[in-house]
Amino acid sequence: MSDALRLPNRWLSLAVLALTQLVVVLDATIVTIALPDAQAELGLSDLERQWVVTAYVLVFGALLLLGGRIADYWGRKRAFLVGLLGFGIASALGGLAQNGTELVIARGLQGLFAALLAPAALALLTVTFASGRDRNTAFAVFGIIGGSGAAVGLILGGVLTEFTSWRWCLLVNVVFVILGFIGGILYLRESRAEGENRLDIWGAITVTLGLGSLVYGFSLAEDGWGSANTIGFLALGAGLLVLFVVIESRVAQPLLPLRVVANRVRGGAFLMQAVVGSVLIGATLYLTFHFQIVLGMRPLMAGLANVAMTIVILLVVPFLTKLLPTVGPRPLLIAGPLVGAAGLWYLSGITPGGNYFTEVLPGLVLLGIGLSMLFVTLQNLALTGVAPHDAGAASATVNAALQIGGSIGVSVFTAIYAGVEQRSLETGTDMLAAFTDGYSAVFIAAAIAMVAASVIAVIFIRGSKSDLLPQNEHPVAVHLG
């Protein structure tokens, strides 16, 4: 194939992968706007309402490592297409759900197939754009979509809920899947890890059950951090994850080679990604509730109310992409969380009768700037220096950190919200004011988490600019066919 044909096809493959990234990211939030309507129609309990969000991000995050390794061994294009097709079917099932159980199960199935789809897409991106300026451009596109996808989901969810039905927040994925499936067949090239490949079954079992137990334990914290069930599931999760590390250190072909996370810089990037996920998924959920439940916004207005953060991210990320080679990742990763924390702290000042433009908008602008500093930098840094054989596992870890952070964030923030709201009601505070007190507490907790992310950057993200962002990565072998 001539270079003239190969180059356009490479950018068309980026378009296909970017579309997939958009679907995966926005699906964590697109149903958020629709939750009040879905809860009313299906008679969901508050716990079921939380699990409509948690089921997706939990299953997604817990199975990402396994999905990444399957993509490496089975073939990344093949895994991409199967994951995309399954995701579309699960979305259709969710859109047609007749009760809360069916909806939660469908969301879990979406997470399962997304766990195969997402690492395959990111690994395909990594091997298609192996080095140089084109790689930076490709990751910038992924960063913009990753940064704006959650907010786009909120806006799209508002439009669909307002003018059609909450069900179309799930059914719309079928359209994206059809386009992505056709594009994937036409423009993606198959690649897989070299050498003998064998799945690490015991590693897959322990990490999946460990992460699941950990997140479920956090979800039980609403009933009390000291309850036997909460402590039991958290302890079980921690123990299984320790066992997972032991297994990975001893098997010949581990699900997650410890060398991927043992690197100080990459390990720090993964930790920061988890914090970003907790804030992006958890805090955004409660801001949406404030818009609809306290301020009385219609779904469309509630979605549009988030657009400020999206616009800021879209404007700032391209500028920061050009700035990154000049200043290096470390300053951005230290300052970004602090700017985001300032925005969240500002949002904690919301009141039941407050004005969006004075109480919310400045906080969203600051949060958008802070997140912009993190998205492209973290994703690129987390994959820098990864051997071709480990591309799928590293890509999966990037996504898993974000999703598991998000699922833990939803659970922890829910516990914080419920505790503060209950205490406010017990002191005679009216209901809307009690809701607002709970939301404010969530934003304060999220701000503290972002400050912790900045501390992680100070401790872990060390090295010269050239070490952290090498200009020429080792070429990645691509197997065609």
UniProtKB/TrEMBL annotation:
SUPFAM superfamilies: MFS general substrate transporter. It is found in: Cell membrane. It is a multi-pass membrane protein. This is MFS transporter. GO terms for cellular component: plasma membrane. Its main location: membrane. Residues 13-465 form the Major facilitator superfamily (MFS) profile domain. Pfam families: MFS_1. Signal peptide: none annotated. Keywords: Cell membrane, Membrane, Transmembrane, Transmembrane helix, Transport. The chain crosses the membrane at residues 12-35, 50-67, 79-97, 109-130, 137-159, 165-187, 199-219, 225-247, 268-289, 301-320, 332-348, 360-384, 396-418, 438-461. GO terms for molecular function: transmembrane transporter activity.
